[in-house]
């Protein structure tokens, strides 16, 4: 039998706190024993809500997913990757963490969990294999969203597990009936289109004033982990702080982190002027893309020297370069290194032309500025 995940019914703020009283010769049923469990669960949730509040306690960062695929655990890039990297489209990974839910439940993400932004999310329980969970019974059809922000959130769920045979209640011969014998803690990671009101600053603050009111019971069970901005499936940035609610030690007080968003630079177009550059001459290169402001170094291969790099607005970079007099003819690849160690390569960005005898006598030429350079007399 397949394990089943079950969500709590509404809010537990107004639940009746009642437990069974035992006495000699009392008939104990499954309802009595379940009531005792429920009593302590409700007290524990109430304690968490009133004393600790709710939100992300630690971890649970949302990061990019690196290629290649196929490993048991997703290859996560939370800003530490160096060199040339490739990312999966529509995919992010939620790292291990500990969260307190709005209803007082403890949510433990015990290993990296890959999430497809085109689906409603993923459900998991303690002990499930790491990585992306594939439901063998029903695979959800992915639905691509319009470009823009999405919010990765998590909420508590519990799962029925360990099915066992149940003794027949009558005299029949049917012994195939099963019941789940255990509950196992779990969670659901979902994709929201808006940041909930409960995550906007102003809902609880550190102030001097009258006796504070008890924290209200939230209507939604979700705890947002990150804001993900995509462009037709290409994840542009992951902000783990804009819509994340952090837990302090008191129920009405919470804080927000100030970590910079995880931004993925992109190169969409590279133009060389002139298209073919002679040895012992200069040229211009225009690079267009997104998030190109934090460039540390630009390289154009052997025997080509980069003179200046000017970035304008993060979407365009102008590079001036000089080709050595001894440069061999052929294409040169562009290599852009960013301050965080990432590297983007663009093949055949410039072409070094074969120099003729007349051009050797003419000497070096500069990059064109609307007019062709005249050869100098020898």
Question: Which key phrases capture this entry?
Answer:
378 residues; mainly beta; Immunoglobulin-like; 7-stranded antiparallel beta sheet; 5-stranded mixed beta sheet; 2 helices
Mind explaining what this structure looks like?
This protein has helices at 30-52, 357-362; strands at residues 4-6, 55-59, 62-66, 76-77, 83-84, 87-94, 97-100, 106-109, 113-116, 121-125, 148-165, 178-192, 223-231, 234-239, 246-247, 254-255, 262-263, 266-273, 276-277, 281-290, 295-299, 304-312, 316-323, 330-338, 342-352. With 378 residues, the chain is mostly beta strands. It has 2 domains: 4-8 and 28-132 and 144-165 and 178-201 and 219-263, no CATH class; 266-362, Immunoglobulins (Immunoglobulin-like), CATH 2.60.40.10. Strands 1, 10, 11, 12, 13, 14 and 17 form a 7-stranded antiparallel β-sheet that branches. Strand 13 (223-231) and strand 14 (234-239) form a beta hairpin. The relative contact order is 0.13.
Task: Write a brief caption for the model.
This protein is mainly beta and 378 residues long. The chain is built from two helices and 25 strands. The chain has helices at 30-52, 357-362; strands spanning 4-6, 55-59, 62-66, 76-77, 83-84, 87-94, 97-100, 106-109, 113-116, 121-125, 148-165, 178-192, 223-231, 234-239, 246-247, 254-255, 262-263, 266-273, 276-277, 281-290, 295-299, 304-312, 316-323, 330-338, 342-352.
């Amino acid at each position: 039998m397949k394990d089943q995940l079950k969500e709590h019914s509404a809010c537990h703020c107004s639940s009746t706190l009642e437990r069974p009283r035992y006495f000699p010769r009392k008939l104990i049923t499954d309802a009595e024993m379940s009531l005792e469990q429920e009593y302590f669960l409700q007290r524990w949730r109430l304690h968490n809500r009133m004393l600790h509040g709710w939100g992300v306690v630690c971890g649970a960062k949302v990061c990019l997913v690196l290629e290649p695929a196929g490993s048991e655990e997703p290859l996560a890039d939370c800003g530490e990757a160096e060199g040339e990297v490739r990312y999966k489209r529509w995919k992010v990974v939620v790292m291990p963490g500990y969260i307190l839910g709005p209803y007082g439940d403890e949510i433990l993400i015990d290993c990296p969990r890959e999430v497809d932004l085109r689906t409603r999310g993923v459900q998991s329980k303690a002990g499930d294999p790491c990585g992306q969970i594939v439901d063998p019974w029903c695979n959800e059809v992915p639905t691509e969203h319009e470009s823009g922000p999405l919010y990765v959130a998590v909420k508590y769920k519990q799962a029925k597990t360990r099915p066992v045979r149940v003794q027949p209640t009558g005299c029949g011969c049917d012994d195939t009936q099963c019941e789940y014998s255990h509950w196992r803690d779990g969670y659901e990671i979902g994709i929201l289109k808006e940041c909930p009101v409960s995550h906007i600053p102003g809902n609880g603050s550190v102030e001097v004033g009258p006796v504070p009111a008890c924290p209200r019971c939230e209507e939604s069970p979700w705890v947002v982990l990150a804001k993900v901005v995509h462009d037709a499936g290409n994840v542009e940035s992951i902000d783990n702080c804009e819509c994340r609610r952090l837990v302090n030690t008191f129920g009405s007080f919470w804080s927000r982190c100030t970590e910079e968003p995880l931004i993925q630079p992109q190169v969409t177009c590279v133009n060389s002027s002139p298209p073919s550059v002679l040895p012992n001459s200069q040229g211009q290169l225009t690079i267009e893309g997104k998030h190109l402001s934090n460039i540390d170094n630009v390289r154009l291969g052997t025997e080509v020297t980069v003179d200046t790099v000017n970035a304008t607005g993060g979407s365009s970079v102008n590079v001036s370069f000089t080709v050595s007099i001894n440069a061999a003819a052929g294409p040169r690849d562009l290599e852009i290194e960013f301050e965080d160690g990432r590297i983007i390569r663009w093949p055949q960005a410039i072409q070094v032309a074969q120099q003729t005898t007349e051009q050797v006598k003419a000497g070096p030429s500069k990059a064109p500025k609307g007019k062709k350079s005249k050869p100098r007399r020898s």
